[in-house]
Amino acid sequence: MFVMKKYAFPPIFEILEAREKKISGDLQSAEDIKAAAEKLKKDFEEQLKAAHDKATMIVQLAVEESRKIQEKTLEETQAKCRQMQKEAEHEIQAARNQILAEIRGYIAALTITSAEKVLKRALTEDDKKRLVDESIDEVVSTLEKQA
User: Fold this and answer.
1) What sign for the dihedral angle of Cα 37, 43, 46, 51?
2) Surface-to-core class of residue 124, CB atoms within 10 Å of its CB (0-12 exposed, 13-18 middle, 19+ buried)
3) Which residue, 36, 62, 99, 111, could crosslink 135 as a Cys pair with Cβ 3.0–4.6 Å?
4) 13-65, pLDDT tens digit by residue?
5) How many whole angstroms separate alpha carbon 77 and alpha carbon 83?
6) How far, rounded to the nearest angstrom, does the alpha carbon of residue 3 sit from its chain's CA centroid?
7) Do 107 and 132 form a contact (C-beta atoms < 8 A)?
8) What is the pLDDT of residue 138?
9) Run of H or E including 46
10) Residues 6+ apart with CB under 8 A from 135
């Protein structure tokens, strides 16, 4: 026993101690690798969250920009419609004035001719003017009532 204790056990204990140190070192390395993997996983999750937040922000900006473009287009279209309506109203008013002027001319000529034929004499300029004005006023009031 003494010989074994002196010569056999010390190398066995050294081997066991070395093996224990190696196992402890391997366990520590595994723990370090696990901690590094956890840190990498945490960093990856943070980067993934940041990318998701950035993507959400980009989508929100795109939606807002689209809404602004849509509103601008709608405003421009409405402005063009209002302008076209104003132009149409001006054209209608000009055509109305032109038609009224033509009607006045026809009515004046018709009134004078009718009055001269009824009276069988030539009218004075004042009579002509009075008859034309009365006839025109009657026709215009009748047209306005119909419109």
Assistant:
1) negative
2) exposed
3) 111
4) 888 899 999 999 999 999 999 999 999 999 999 999 999 999 999 999 999 99
5) 10
6) 97
7) yes
8) 79
9) helix 9-119
10) 107, 108, 110, 111
